[in-house]
Write a structure and sequence with these properties.
The complex is a heterodimer of chains A (293) and B (241). With 293 residues, chain A is an all-alpha fold. Chain A is built from twelve helices and two strands; from the N terminus they run ααααββαααααααα. A two-stranded antiparallel sheet of chain A has the order 1-2. Chain A is globular, with a radius of gyration of 19 Å. Chain B has 241 residues and is α/β, with parallel strands linked by helices. Chain B has one domain: Rossmann fold (3-Layer(aba) Sandwich). The chains are: A mainly alpha (293), B alpha/beta (241).
């Protein structure tokens, strides 16, 4: 029973984490919330689904295409929404509102293209092995989703930590002026950040739609709120925090379903946010730097 | 090497700099002294490409660089050590240095890193520490090291003595003298005129966005106007009144 809930919570939480890491990455670099992230998540899910349904691609290939497409959508978001506003020196609220508007356009477009009914992946595409350990039934899909999610976050972490480009991203996040002074191409770093963030959103979208067997134009709205929750749990702009925060939220949600019933799932999650905001406003894992800033 | 011709610049409103002309010859250390608000930082930020000139020309090795993106200016061989050091606090010391080589063309970054560590052993000792945890003097060394990582031929420094204890300032200035021995030209902007003129071979006095005096360091250091305004106590205009 515990094992069952643990794997349920971790696979759910890993998807939250992938989404939230992309969310927090853009926040770290631009200091602005990109509220179209949920719509990119949804488009990633649809692109993956269409690759499987219409083009009959195997799942790994379909997911790769979906991830890349979502990355490009991220770049388009930066180019259409954030870059013009930045150039005009607009307040960061404008970026938030404009990205929300852009999300609505993306959702509207998805409704036109795919209709509003919930669609599922064809059964044959799924990993349908089930592992029975004692009383727990662990779906192969959950394990795969957890693995893929952790791999995506790990890949991003390695990129940020050990590559030149990753150092440039972290430098831009700290100070655009310093980034320019060391000769980093700030505009390209921003574009790449949106690409990475988009790929994570798209990857999360595919994983989510596989785990929950549903794709709909509105699926991004819920995850956007979860993403905000994780952003606050982990600390704004903190990638490692988003990973731990995502897993934690998944576990807490699943645990609360067991303990107090599914009606309270979101109440417990958001209650946690309130609690964090009241007691540790810089997030659970605030570093000394973050506190000083 | 670096030539600035009738440069005017500012922040979009009325210009802060009015028709500045100055030159930095190969291997030279030149000081620009002036009080707070004279336009020293504006001058360096404009040369480094953080601000666009309103008018006038900036030439590096005879090629115009005025108004180019900072990354292109860095690649052309000019780096700025900004006011207040601005090390990237959450990155480690070594990461700060490595990111300094970002705009560098070709190889040589490893060798420069070794050379920087050779010159600043304390940075090597602390290379895994977050840069934000360094002392002010160490941060200044890191900022200079980071600028050197780009392999510049011209180095601009904005108030390297700011907020540092006199002993540390002497250490940093000794280091700058060392750099110029290696063929790097240095343009040094300082409120600490005494130290700056002691190090530089020539100097300019900047006041309200204009160059009001120039000459060899010895000339400037013995000029009554400079002595009163920057080595003594009173600003020039009060003295004229």
């Amino acid at each position: 029973m515990i094992l069952q809930q643990l794997i349920n919570g971790l696979s759910l939480g890993a998807v939250y984490a992938v989404f939230a890491v992309g969310f927090t990455l853009v926040f770290g670099v631009l200091n602005v919330l990109n509220l179209s992230q949920g719509a990119v998540f949804m488009w990633g899910a649809y692109v993956g689904l269409e690759m499987v349904r219409t083009l009959q691609l195997p799942l790994p290939a379909a997911m790769t295409v979906a991830v890349m497409a979502a990355g490009l959508l991220g770049v388009v978001t930066e180019w259409l929404v954030f870059r013009p506003l930045q150039r005009r020196g607009a307040h960061r609220w404008m970026g938030m509102v404009a990205s929300l508007a852009f999300a609505r356009i993306l959702i509207g477009a998805a409704q036109e293209v795919f209709g509003t009914q919930v669609i599922r992946y064809p059964d044959a595409t799924l990993v349908d092995a089930t592992l029975v350990v004692g009383e727990a039934r662990i779906q192969g899909l959950q394990v795969v989703a957890l693995g893929v999610a952790l791999a995506m976050v790990l890949a991003l972490g390695l990129l940020l930590k050990f590559t030149n480009f990753g150092r440039a991203i972290r430098t831009v996040a700290f100070s655009e002026t310093v980034a320019r002074l060391v000769g980093a191409p700030v505009a390209r770093v921003r574009g790449a950040t949106f690409f990475l963030s988009g790929t994570l959103a798209g990857g999360a979208g595919v994983l989510w739609s596989l785990l929950f067997q549903s794709v709909s134009p509105f699926m991004g709205d819920t995850i956007l709120l979860k993403g905000l929750t994780v952003l606050i749990l982990g600390g704004l702009g903190n990638v490692a925090g988003a990973l731990v925060g995502g897993l934690l939220l998944g576990l807490v949600e699943v645990g609360s379903v067991v303990a107090v019933g599914s009606g309270f799932r979101d109440a417990v999650g958001f209650g946690l946010v309130l609690l964090i905001l009241l007691t540790r406003p810089t997030g659970l894992f605030a570093t000394r730097e973050a506190k000083r800033a | 090497m670096l030539e600035i011709q009738s440069l005017s610049a500012g922040y979009g409103g009325p210009p802060v700099l009015h028709g500045i002309s100055l030159a930095l010859r190969p291997g030279e250390i030149v000081a620009v002294v002036g009080s707070n608000g004279a336009g020293k930082t504006t001058l360096l930020n404009t040369v480094a490409g953080l601000l666009r000139p309103v008018s006038g020309r900036i030439l590096l090795d005879g090629k115009p660089i005025g108004g180019l993106a900072t990354e292109r200016i860095v690649r052309a061989g000019l780096s700025l050590v900004p006011e207040g050091r601005q090390v990237v606090a959450p990155l480690s010391v070594e990461e700060n240095l490595l990111v300094g080589a970002y705009g560098r063309r070709g190889g040589g970054a490893r060798e420069t890193l070794a050379a920087v560590y050779g010159r600043f052993p304390r940075l090597k000792e602390r290379r895994r520490q977050a840069a934000g945890l360094l002392s002010g003097g160490e941060q200044q060394m890191l900022a200079i090291g980071r600028a050197l990582m780009a392999g510049p031929r011209v180095l601009l420094l904005d108030e390297p003595s700011m907020g540092l204890a006199p002993l540390i300032v002497s250490e940093i200035f000794a280091l700058l003298g060392d750099l110029h021995g290696r063929g790097i030209s240095v343009l040094l902007v300082e409120q600490n005129a005494r130290k700056a003129l002691a190090l530089a071979s020539r100097g300019y006095v900047l006041e309200r966005g204009r160059i009001v005096l120039e000459g060899t360091s010895a000339e400037l250091a013995s000029s009554p106007a400079v002595v009163d305004a920057y080595l003594g106590a009173k600003p020039l205009e009060e003295q004229a009144a």
